[in-house]
Amino acid sequence: MTRVGVIGTGTYGAIHLDAISQRQRLLGDVELAGFAEIDETRRRETEQRYGVRGYASHGELIERGRPEAVTVVTPDHLHYRVVMDCLDEDLAVLVEKPFATKVEEAEAMAAKAREKGLLCQVDFHKRFDPYHIDLKLRLEAGELGSVQYGYCWMEDVLQVGTSMIGKKSWEDQGSPAWFLGIHMIDLSYWLMGLPKPERVYATGFKGKLSSMGIDIYDSVKAEVTYANGAVFTYDTSVILPDSHESIVRQGVKIVGTEGFMEVNSQYRGARGCTTAKGMETPNLGMMYRKLSKSGETLKFGYLNDSIYDFIDNVQHLQNGGKLEELEGGYASPEQGIETTRIGVAIHESARSGRIQEIKH
Ligand SMILES: NC(=O)c1ccc[n+]([C@@H]2O[C@H](COP(=O)([O-])OP(=O)(O)OC[C@H]3O[C@@H](n4cnc5c(N)ncnc54)[C@H](O)[C@@H]3O)[C@@H](O)[C@H]2O)c1
Question: How far is CA 205 from CA 105, 173, 328, in A?
């Protein structure tokens, strides 16, 4: 039985709580040790909903809830302090993407995890999408030849800009390139077998959100050159009309010497329109439902898979396995450093208008 705590229970923390409590009910090999949430109203609501104790700080969760592992689901720019404190307390940590928004923070977290021999995994769940896994296997088998260029897009509706990454508690630190782009940056980096990023050029656009008093980018367009010679373009934005048929438009195209492959990572063939919900394209790769024998609706898909993978890794270590045996099979802190370097270079290029060379 592994005791897992969740730190930060906003929009995405609820996904973590759902995933862990479902596994607790289904497999019984994990127990929700409680959660930490600084917002008192949310803390009370979450306590009622999940029937577990909420604490006002991660320190209190660690001391009184006694988790063996935690998932950190605080806003993008607020992962560092929490992760460092948890590693100091010898806990295994799953960190939401992006690993960090500063290279120094990513390096310090990676150094601490390595020094203590602890599992520190980044929740890059696009690696668990079966369509992306298929693409990776094709690339590894050489079906596409050597990759020359690629294109990734991930664009969210305006509501994400105004009510999620643009809300006050994100302190104007949100960015479509951090919130969305990092998913696709990690995906392409992982698909290609982790080539070092070398050069970045990016343009950031402001106007729509700033006219609403939110001083963050509406969209960011970036081009990254990797050490294998491949050049990838990443288009990200948080200003799609709210009437769009899903919260997100997303996908990846990769072109190599022997062919190409395109994945529409959102539209998976099911489309509909209802009075209650309007147009919809449910992404069953991310989440599909099943009924248990007792009639309970269960959720599966890459949304949960990446969280369960972390728990499996924690249990591997608890059962006497070694961290080295997991290397290569999870989004490590070193890989988190590389994607953080790209994210930082994108923002620096967008700010300065200059190409950024990435130093290693
Ligand atoms: N994997 C994905 O697809 C995905 C989707 C959405 C969000 N995320 C990531 O999850 C993280 C959280 O995003 P969100 O949309 O849930 O944000 P959110 O603002 O809705 O929730 C964050 C919560 O953390 C709490 N918090 C902040 N500092 C805290 C601390 N020190 N201790 C305890 N609680 C604290 C806030 O009060 C808030 O309730 C971000 O890094 C985001 O990028 C990932």
Answer: 26, 15, 36
Number of domains in the chain: 2
CATH number at residue 23: 3.40.50.720
All residues at 6 or more sequence positions from 306 whose CB lies less than 8 Å from its CB, including other chains: 123, 124, 125, 127, 128
Best mutation site among 12, 70, 307 for ligand 1, i.e. most ligand atoms within 8 A of its Cβ?
12
Q: What residues are paired with 253 via a beta bridge?
A: 151, 262
R_g (Cα) of the chain, nearest Å: 20
- Summarised one tens digit per residue, pLDDT across range 234-260 is 999 999 999 999 999 999 999 999 999
pTM of the model: 0.97
pLDDT for 360 beyond 90: no
Nearest Cα to Cα of residue 310 among 289, 338, 285, 330: 330
Model confidence at 156: pLDDT above 90 = yes
Q: What is the CATH number of the domain that holds 271?
A: 3.30.360.10
How many CB atoms are located within 10 Å of the residue 176 CB?
29
> Ligand 1: does its nearest atom lie under 6 Å from the Cβ of 6?
no
From the CB of 165, is ligand 1 less than 6 Å away? no
Range of the domain at 120: 2-126+294-332
Angle in degrees, 0-180, between the axes of helices 182-191 and 130-140, rounded to the nearest 10:
30
Whether residues 90 and 19 share a domain: the answer is yes
- 266 and 282 belong to one structural domain: yes
